[in-house]
Amino acid sequence: MFQGLTQRLLQNEGRSGGSARESGASEPGKPREPVGETPNGAPDDIQWQGLPRPTIGLALGGGAARGWAHIGVLRACMEAGIKPDVIAGTSIGAVVGGCYAAGKLDELEEFARGLSPRRVLSLLDLSLGGSGLLNGAKLDKLLRQHLGDSRIEDLDVRMIAVATELKTGHEIWLRRGVHVDLMRASYALPGIFKPVAINSRFLVDGALVNPVPVSVCRAYGARLVIAVNLNADFIARGTVVPDLPEFDSTHPQGLEDIPDLDASQRGTIASGVMKVARSAQDTVIRQFTATTQPAMGVSGVMMQSFNIIQDRLTRSRLAGDPPDLTIGPRVGDVGLFDFHRAEETINAGYEAAKRALDEAAFMQEALT
Question: What backbone phi and psi angles, to 5 degrees, belong to 28?
């Protein structure tokens, strides 16, 4: 299915000739831009590996432990004969996408499925005096055991990791350098992992600026972009709650407008509402004052706050630059630290990809 789609897409691009920037042409009266460079500094992919341009781009979003779903998505793509020419990954997406591009997806899946809560804890090396709660040295050592000092530009598949420069807030596309270092920079969640220094810049998690890097795939020449959004099944996260007027216990608002109710019925309803309100108020007071009530830790507050920011930013970025196909694994119930739940998360990614890819046939007709 997708092979035919790719061929049609390439034929259409060949007939149209592409844009002036993509074909290496220049506007009349202006000097010709050098082939291999684009105005934003990203390399032109016109002659990359003998292809007119990379056809399929895969944007793998961030989401911590939910990112194991990317493994299932890639498995489904492989079964469908879909081989991405460009992979852009943010945070855990950079790790999974990078391992796939390096031919190490099997090893990563075996590692993920073998994780237990105890094993996860053993990989968390606390750092009391640093700029993050975790040092990250154990994870770094584990990645280097499989990837060594390989460089990202030498991979068979074009891979870009997205990070954020801590000082300026700039979005950084990491395309050259030691593969493991670039992965670490992309998943360095502020406050959890210490920033990674690359070329005199301190880099942190790319999800702060581009949670699902569709725009990166577009910039590197992908004409068909498949995005994997790990926050897709979060419901009502974008809801805005207005400033409601203060509740008047002596005169409940709106009850006099309920049709077909007499005064005694309205009074019964008002009494019930007041009981619920008092119960909720007591519950909130106990949560904040009771010494036995378990409180959310610092890391939990940070992760949940980051979750909210990432979800809002994802909605905004995807609205401005929507992908051609979105895969949304149902992993909303998987906590950001639930790395031991790899089996169900991988399966969720696989099933979501199968559902989405089965619905992609309409794109063939649109491109004919």
Answer: -55, 135
- Number of C-beta neighbours around residue 298 at 10 A: 10
Residue tagged 């991979």 (tokens): 155
Q: Which residue has the tokens 């280097």?
A: 144
Q: Which of 145, 139, 154, 141 is nearest to 104 (CA)?
A: 145
Provide the token pair at 3.
């092979």
pLDDT of 79-137, one tens digit each? 988 899 999 999 999 999 999 999 999 999 999 999 999 999 999 888 877 788 888 99
Catalytic residue among 44, 91, 311, 338, which? Answer: 91
Computed on alpha carbons and rounded to an integer, the radius of gyration of the chain in Å comes to 25
Question: How many beta carbons lie within 10 A of that of residue 3, not counting itself?
Answer: 11
- Tell me which DSSP letter residue 49 carries: G
205 is catalytic: yes
**CB–CB of 341/120 below 8 Å?**
no
pLDDT for 241: 57
The dihedral over CA atoms of 265, 266, 268, 269, expressed in degrees to the nearest 10, equals: 120
Residues 186, 177 contacting (CB under 8 angstroms): no
Strand partners, 202: 197
Tell me, yes or no, if 316 is annotated catalytic: no
CA dihedral sign of residues 164, 166, 170, 172? negative
Beta bridge partners of 164: 171, 204
Among candidate residues 181, 205, 311, 338, the one labeled active-site is: 205
Q: Please give the angle made by the CA atoms of 204, 206 and 209, to the nearest 5 degrees.
A: 115
Run of H or E residues at 161: strand 158-165
Over residues 308-335, the pLDDT tens digits come to 888 888 888 989 899 999 999 999 889 8
Q: What does 64-86 look like in DSSP terms, one character per residue?
A: GGGGGHHHHHHHHHHHTT---SE
Contacts of 121 (CB under 8 A, 6+ apart): none
pTM (2 decimals)? 0.72
Q: Which of 47-61, 153-167, 316-330 has the lowest mean pLDDT?
A: 47-61
